Amino acid sequence: MKKLTYLYLLPFALSILSCSRESEETKASTPLSDQELEFEIYDSLVVDYLGNLTLMDISPDGDRYLLVDETTDSIFAVNSSGEQLYHYKLSGEGPNQYTSNRYGKIKFLTNDDFLILTTRGVYKYDIKGQLQKIYKPDFTPKAQIIIGGSDNLLVNGNQLYLNLPGRGSDEFGSQGVDYQQNSTHVEILDLQSETYTAAIPFPSSSKFSSEEKAYKFYSFYSNISLGKDSLYISYRHEPKIFSYPLSDLSTLGSTKTIPFDSFFENEPKSDQVDDNITISELYAGTINKMIAIEDQQFLIDYLAGLTGAEYNETVAKAGEDVNKQWEELGKINKGGFVIFDGKNISSPIEKPEILGNLDKYISKDEMWFSLNFSAAENDYSVIYKTRLISN
């Protein structure tokens, strides 16, 4: 009788499998630009703590989460249930603390220790918050922009890839044509030899390699990301992604131009740097985040930017209130998250208002976002687990 039941259910199972394959084939055949994508919330990490917690990293075994309260720079280690395991303040002047600014996200090295990149080098701590090692660079780092949520430290076995500027700046400065011709943008830290090695100058296919135009430091702030066998880099005000094989970072593998519908690039007019910061120039098209994901694709968070006329008109309309100006400028500076496959991009991915910043990407089925603190007030802290779905 059991055999008859299995035979009866077999056609039904085959029918489901067939439908599933047809759905996958239909999705695969739909051009990326025509796909309607959405971040779907399906789980969360709730921590009994009142503050602005953001997720730094998840341990390799998935059992521990490192979070930081951005208002106090306190670090929390919690388990998958949100229970606080450890809580420490590691920035300061004590013997167990780092005395300089944290430069981007904290990253697990193993399940039991983690790394903090600072403007003076890399600090290694165990999970209990005890200092294990300081990896000091052989140059003086000079960071002109500090973005706490940037992935400025990437772990690949015993090799760390760091977005840590400053090497050679005493010789050729930190912006201008001399900098553009001589600087490098990635430091490789070998944890065994404890040595730093410079890599990746501006490639010739980047506008920032120019000898005729001098760009300001905030235009070429870099994003770095690791693929299976490549290191990828993009610069803040340029819609391109440059790839380098991990086996030879001195060789440019490819340059991919991102075909945004709109991306305003504010170009300098001479080979001399104007040291005055013009606020309107900060509203050029911006790559905020670039992550190499599966299927040789990239997840990109960007803003299209504003022309000088759009900026001036919006500011004039908003009046003298600076907060009102920012609010109105944000309304017209369009962008969001898109998928880029090397040739085409998707439409902006729909994102629920409750989601804030993308804190951790693991796969298309597991992306963690912080709470949008302007959209909700909680008596606890929550990090949302999402996946990418097609509508």
Strand order of the largest sheet: 1-23-22-21
| Rounded Rg | 23 Å
> How much of the polypeptide forms β-strand, as a percent range?
35-45%
Largest sheet: 4 strands, antiparallel
What is the chain-wise order of helices and strands? HEEEEEEEEEEEHHEEEEEEEEHHEEEE
Report the strand count.
23
Structural class: alpha+beta
How would you describe what is shown here?
With 391 residues, the chain is an alpha+beta fold. Helices cover 15% and strands 35% of the residues. The radius of gyration is 23 Å and the shape is globular. The model is unreliable at 1-26 (pLDDT under 50).
Q: What would a concise description of this structure say?
A:
This protein has 391 residues and is α+β, with helices and mostly antiparallel strands.
Tell me the layout of helices and strands:
Blueprint: H1 2-29, E1 37-47, E2 53-58, E3 64-69, E4 74-79, E5 84-88, E6 107-108, E7 113-118, E8 121-126, E9 131-135, E10 153-156, E11 159-162, H2 169-172, H3 177-182, E12 186-190, E13 195-199, E14 222-226, E15 230-235, E16 240-245, E17 254-257, E18 286-293, E19 297-303, H4 308-318, H5 322-332, E20 335-340, E21 355-363, E22 366-371, E23 381-390
Antiparallel strand pairs: 1-23, 2-3, 3-4, 4-5, 6-7, 7-8, 8-9, 10-11, 11-12, 12-13, 14-15, 15-16, 16-17, 18-19, 19-20, 21-22, 22-23
Helix pairs in contact: 4-5
